[in-house]
Amino acid sequence: MTSRTDSRNLTTGYDYTSGGRITTETPAR
């Protein structure tokens, strides 16, 4: 696991860093 946001993104597909946009890609930040 690299980051909490990364794990959440890969699991739920919900990007918190992007402001709550549904995406399957990893957060840019």
Question: How would you explain this protein's 3D organization?
Answer:
This protein has one helix at residues 4-12; strands at 14-15, 21-22. The chain has 29 residues and is α+β, with helices and mostly antiparallel strands. It starts with a helix and ends in a 7-residue tail after the last strand. It contains one helix and two strands; from the N terminus they run H-E-E. The relative contact order is 0.29. It has one domain (1-29). The chain is globular, with a radius of gyration of 8 Å. A two-stranded antiparallel sheet has the order 1-2. The model has no long low-confidence stretch (mean pLDDT 56). A hairpin with a 5-residue loop joins strand 1 and strand 2 (21-22). Helices cover 31% and strands 14% of the residues. The longest helix has 9 residues, at 4-12.
